[in-house]
Amino acid sequence: xxxxxxxxxxxxxxxxxxxxxxxxxxxxxxxxxxxxxxxxxxxxxxxxxxxxxxxxxxxxxxxx
Length: 64
Fold this sequence. Notes:
elongated
């Protein structure tokens, strides 16, 4: 297995974890300013990590 694919899988897992964390925060939020700021920051980071991981996995050629 290629090192880029492993790193892509790691980034994808971090992105999924971040998005799940955002979902948990969203359910438990009271609507305060601090809650909304955390939701936005973690969701943007989760989307970036997830997108980068999927892109890295898709563009890496499997050379055996």
